[in-house]
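Private note to self, pasted from the team thread so I don't lose it. Backbone tokens:
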């Protein structure tokens, strides 16, 4: 599978919408079967956009490239930070960010999501997370064990100075669950709120090995021939429903 992860610079809303059309079309024309955009890529934290306007553009973009799966992550809608997935002009799935990032005041901007999300695509099951969610391994674990996901897609707005944390967490989610993990981060933003330098894009195979790319955008995943599993996270999982706490004696 050929995946395209945008290296997006967030600017003004009108400019962002125009560039979305152009970049999505170019990616699809170059053979991308999945195209991913990062968290809040149209507005950042400081701009506003009516969700219906974004949805109209998402439908147009995905309708033109009808065979390409688009992950638009994310927009602000219904007081949620919402990732949407589109195919052939229609929304295929949506996920509301659960683990809001308190240092950025996200808990004041949005309500936390209440359910995990996975969807079927080409006979495979794909799970969705959003940025800070990747810090919580139990979410990826449920998507792997209970939803049967083979792939995890994670849009993000993560700073460059902490790229080492972002990449490490993505790699851990891949290795511990034997899943393909695609992390698409904002490359940067410019505007009245100040400039922001974002972290990199990272893709890992189910063994936790990075998928190499020449441009930080285009990745080729051999989904039919994953690396052999050393420890099967499903077959070898042991469920324990209690914790034994040994109290210290004075």
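Design output:
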């Amino acid at each position: 599978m050929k995946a395209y992860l945008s290296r997006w610079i967030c600017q003004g809303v009108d400019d962002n919408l125009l560039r979305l059309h152009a970049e999505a079309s170019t990616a699809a024309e170059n053979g991308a079967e999945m195209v991913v955009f990062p968290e809040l890529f149209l507005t950042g934290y400081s701009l506003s956009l009516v969700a219906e306007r974004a949805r109209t553009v998402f439908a147009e973009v995905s309708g033109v490239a009808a065979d390409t799966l688009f992950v638009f992550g994310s927009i602000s809608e219904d007081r949620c930070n919402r990732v949407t997935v589109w195919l052939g002009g229609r929304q295929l799935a949506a996920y509301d960010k659960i683990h809001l990032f308190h240092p950025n005041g996200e808990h004041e901007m949005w309500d936390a999501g209440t359910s995990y999300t996975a969807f079927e695509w080409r006979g495979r099951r794909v799970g969705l997370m959003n940025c800070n969610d990747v810090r919580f391994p139990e979410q990826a674990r449920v998507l792997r064990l209970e939803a049967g996901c083979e792939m995890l897609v994670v849009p993000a707005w993560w700073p460059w100075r902490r790229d080492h944390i972002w990449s490490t967490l993505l790699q851990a989610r891949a290795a511990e669950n034997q899943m393909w993990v695609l992390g698409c981060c904002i490359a940067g933003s410019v505007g009245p709120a100040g400039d922001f330098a974002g972290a990199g894009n990272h893709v890992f195979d189910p063994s936790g090995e990075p998928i190499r790319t020449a441009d930080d955008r285009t990745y080729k995943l051999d989904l039919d021939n994953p690396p052999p599993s050393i420890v099967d996270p499903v077959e070898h999982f042991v469920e324990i429903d209690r914790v034994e706490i040994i109290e210290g004696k004075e």
